[in-house]
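Quick start: what a row looks like.
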Amino acid sequence: MSRDLVYVSPIPWRGLHQRPQHMALALAAGRRVLFVEPRTLHAPPPPPDGLDGGAPTLAFLALPVLPVNARQPLLRALARLGGQVALLRDGLARRQGLLLRGKLAALGFREPLLLFGHPELADLREILPGAPVAYDHMDDVLAFGRTPAVLRHALRALVREAALLSASSAHLAEQLRALGGREPLLVGNGVEFARFAAEPPPPAPAALAALPRPRCLYVGSVAEWFDLELLFAVARALPAASFPVIGPLRPALAPRLQGAPPNCHFLGARPYAELPAWLRHADAGLIPFRRTPLTAGVDPVKLYEYLAAGLPVLATPFSAALEAAAAAGAVCLAEGAEAFATALRALLASPPPAERGLHALAAPRSWDRQLAPLLGALDAL
């Protein structure tokens, strides 16, 4: 078994199932892993060690953090002000260190590796001086609204100190180079292909089965980068189609749903295990994102999940990763409501064959294959 590892995740285990959960499970297949998550206001607590879809070698720890990315603007502003108060910041760091030391002692971790998925808790390096440090750049963390200066400094220091760097897209890899880091591994996102392509497909969820076809589905967060106005305009242009949206909604965006056409259905977040049932009974997968500094670096996991489920995909051209996928025939790109609606009509009228086309594009993107170079590099530290 490989060396123990502490993975400091950017998101909670029971949040939306994304790259961090897949990475932790892959790591735990060959070593003991402590999954350290930020304790947020809206996520449930982590599961008991080794449970909840984890592995016997996967343990969990939630650490208190200032909610600088809270959904409520006032709370977010107060948290960022609090982060500038040395007494509060230092007290929180001491509490985090105490909790981590206790968990490491309970698990018997002696000389673990440290893998960070976000710079917010980068000071945890001081708890394990001399431990090899790695950093996985999953998102442009500096593009999430107004970023505190302390986080910018933490990111630069972490990147320059890390013995191993990885990035989920070429755009993010270039950011790491610009920050003065060593040459990063390009570790694009992937998919549990067998889960989403399994035959026979699971039954359609009742809430989806009640909607008329064609069903043009989106799975993921509805946040500032999601183009609600584009979705509404396209839904009005295709009144006979249904547009189910599966995922959490930022509270600040809730008032804008009052303008939603009747064929848009915001159905809330669903467990990851249920996603194949939703995707397998839809007719198209949508990614209607705005082009922003944040989305410019995104390699969307949902793209590969849509493809594995046999869905033709229509997206806006918000990132280089999407443009590369379009060049490979994996996704159709359209910008603006009229062009998007026209492209969606064409996609629904003549979808590509799943077995020969869409599945073939998704199958090489298994998480095991995508993460193998990173796991090998960690073993070499």
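That is the whole record. The mean pLDDT is 89. The longest helix spans residues 86-107.
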